[in-house]
Specification:
Layout: H1 6-11, E1 17-19, E2 22-24, E3 29-32, E4 35-38, H2 44-62, H3 70-86, H4 97-115, H5 124-130, H6 136-168
Antiparallel strand pairs: 1-2, 3-4
Helix pairs in contact: 2-3, 2-4, 3-4
Length: 169
Amino acid sequence: MRCATARRLEQLDDSPITLCGVQITPVTSVRNLGVVMDSSLSFLSHVNHVLSSSFYQLRRIKCSIKALPFDTAKSLVNSFVISRIDYCNSLLTGLPNYALDRLQRMMNAAARMLCGAGKYAHVTGLIRDRLHWLPVAQSIKFKPCLMMYKADAWTGLCIFIRALRKFLC
């Protein structure tokens, strides 16, 4: 995969490369650790992959949702759907709003199915108050902030432990 702007990609040759006698054909997207990256690094192919796999899991869960207690159903949806949306979502920083809106619609569909809300019912309150999920755009901003907070707290803890060792030894 070659990463470049759209204009530069048009200028590049798409012919296969031969390395040690093996012919390697360039591709437009690759998957690494579950994240699909395309040659323009727009992550739109990743969003499409997340949406298709999440809707597939949601359709599978829908068959048995009525037979399960709410907490069990919520855990099931969290495990199979919401975790796919949250996985590596800090890479989606700077994505256009239309792509984030597609992910938010996926989350809204999961909330409607889980809570038994109608097709046109507002789910913002359900997502916030009953399910305790962050909206997609806020979740993308929250994750790097949480990592920075934890790193800062860990640094402070390390400094405290060093000072304590000097005092005790």
